[in-house]
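Observation: inputs received (chain + nicotinamide-adenine-dinucleotide).
Thought: call the complex predictor directly.
Action: predict_structure
Action Input:
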Amino acid sequence: MKKILITGVAGLIGSHLLDELLEMNYQVVGIDNLSFGKIENIKMHLENDRFTFHKVDILDLEMMGEIFNGVNIIVHLASVKKVCESASCMATLRVIGQGTYNILETAKRFGCKVVLASTSDVYGMSPNLPFNEKGDLLLGPSNIKRWGYGVAKLYSEQMAFAYYQDYYVPIVVLRYFGAFSPRSCTCWSGGHIPIFIDAILDDQEVVIHGDGKQTRSMCYVDDLINGTILAMENENAVGEVINIGSDEELSVLETAILIHQIADSGKELKLKFVPMNKVFGDYKEISRRRPDLSKAMNLLGYNPAVSLKDGLKKTIAGYKAHIQLLKADFSQLASTVYEADVNSEIEILQHLLKRQGVN
Ligand SMILES: NC(=O)c1ccc[n+]([C@@H]2O[C@H](COP(=O)([O-])OP(=O)(O)OC[C@H]3O[C@@H](n4cnc5c(N)ncnc54)[C@H](O)[C@@H]3O)[C@@H](O)[C@H]2O)c1
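Observation:
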């Protein structure tokens, strides 16, 4: 059985990929610096003798060295995702640029195949819908840092092809279209679905950027994992760029309404529309995103199986269960800390959030 190394194993896609690969009897090595990922996502596998975890930063080429010995395939997911207008772009550029260079250099040294996670963001504002892998890409100006993520991913794609052409490192580039699951984080980089679910379950305002008519094609994580494994195992995928995701397209506003219906909270949906330029400045929001999946279907036999509605149902159920767990833990913890004479609610909450892996 092949040995697979996942970078970014404690993140959303990495942890679900780990679940599936162990289920399929693969031997897996996972690395993550836990900057965004959570140990909670992988802790159920830490005792599994077919899995080894290393807390390593992919920027540290020396530390990575021997971990890759005997590895057949690297699935390179570690990344710092999109930046919002207020955040620096430096970590995104460094981790995707330098980090991918380190992974490819290590793959060359140890003779590994590399499956590289890229993104639909590289299509940018391309008017050619649905986005096809052969199509031209239309990115925005360099002084708008929101473009840094797509530019860095495109650079990493070019670098992967340079290693393929110049050093014969077998590579596959996967352009993922937005994924979600109950493990999605409810921060900026998790995308609009977890943020909306969180707001609706908590009876808060759902913040819509612009008029909410911009569309997205979001994919329940199981389909993305399935596509990744098909690409990883298929020798015909080497040297190819392949879209992976779902081609079901829904506007952001309609998504909020659908989540509200499924959540069935009994509360009114509260929408707050924020003008696009107040959120993004001069950045032009991408108005439509939809993949052409014919290459993945023909080359890999890929076929997304979970509808958006079913994916949302699973995710909302997961979030509800998590809230119940938080509440149960809270009351249990509250009595424990009461006995220990810690009487501030804030301290109780901090204990609880720490236990749940929330910083
Ligand atoms: N989730 C999506 O919708 C989506 C869409 C398009 C592309 N992608 C790409 O797929 C990959 C996985 O995405 P995800 O949603 O699981 O992201 P994630 O943020 O959940 O996981 C990324 C992981 O990388 C780790 N990491 C970050 N910097 C690191 C470093 N320097 N060294 C070691 N580990 C580091 C983080 O701690 C985290 O666990 C990323 O490359 C992302 O750009 C994801």
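Thought: report the result.
Final Answer: Confidence is low (pLDDT under 50) at residues 336-348. Residues 308-339 form the longest helix (32 residues).
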